[in-house]
Amino acid sequence: MSSSTSRQAPVIVITGTPGTGKTTHAQLLVEESPVPLRHINVGEWVKQKELYEEYDEDWQSYTVDEDKLLDELEPITSAGGVILDWHTSDIFPERWVDLVVVLRCDHSQLWERLEKRGYPLKKVQENNEAEIMEVVLDEARSSYAPEIVVELKSESTEDLESNVARIVQWIDAWKQDHGATNQ
């Protein structure tokens, strides 16, 4: 296993309630990053690589086989230069992660975003409640050192651009701290 000191680029987790803009942030960050980053949409990966136990019709989601998922991700994260985009973060071992970005969104705006996705009402309600109760933020804060968990508002294009610029600055600082060279 490689430690973060030997990586040329960090491992960043972008998390948040569904609809907070994780994938959009990750995609823009790949474009703007001063180091090469690979974006892994973990939910899509689980489907494509069949890293699940079953499909839950009620919730219209997969029950993830966490062991299989972690086995698939271990060599990728140990190499570094990856963004893990998922609605949960506590599954990832602390040794993998250099930064956890928790995206937050006003619940009424989130409700509209989830309805536009065609989510069933039950799923819209549960995700909205999770956002109000800060479930994802609490999970990140209880799983990782406080200095690597950052909460960012994600309600507008301005927020998106500002957030990505902040993360790019963080990556520059990470590179300096870790003596990483441009590849």
TrEMBL record:
Residues 41-64 are annotated as: NMPbind. Gene3D superfamilies: P-loop containing nucleotide triphosphate hydrolases. ATP binds at G19, G21, K22, T23, T24, R117. One of its GO terms (molecular function) is hydrolase activity. Residues 116-126 are annotated as: LID. Coiled coil: none annotated. It is found in: Cytoplasm; Nucleus. Its main location: cytoplasm. Its EC number is 2.7.4.3. It catalyses: ATP + H2O = ADP + phosphate + H(+); AMP + ATP = 2 ADP. Keywords: ATP-binding, Cytoplasm, Hydrolase, Kinase, Nucleotide-binding, Nucleus, Ribosome biogenesis, rRNA processing, Transferase. Pfam families: AAA_18. The keyword Kinase applies. Broad-specificity nucleoside monophosphate (NMP) kinase that catalyzes the reversible transfer of the terminal phosphate group between nucleoside triphosphates and monophosphates. Has also ATPase activity. Involved in the late cytoplasmic maturation steps of the 40S ribosomal particles, specifically 18S rRNA maturation. While NMP activity is not required for ribosome maturation, ATPase activity is. Associates transiently with small ribosomal subunit protein uS11. ATP hydrolysis breaks the interaction with uS11. Interacts with small ribosomal subunit protein uS11. Not a structural component of 43S pre-ribosomes, but transiently interacts with them by binding to uS11. Belongs to the adenylate kinase family. AK6 subfamily. This is Adenylate kinase isoenzyme 6 homolog.
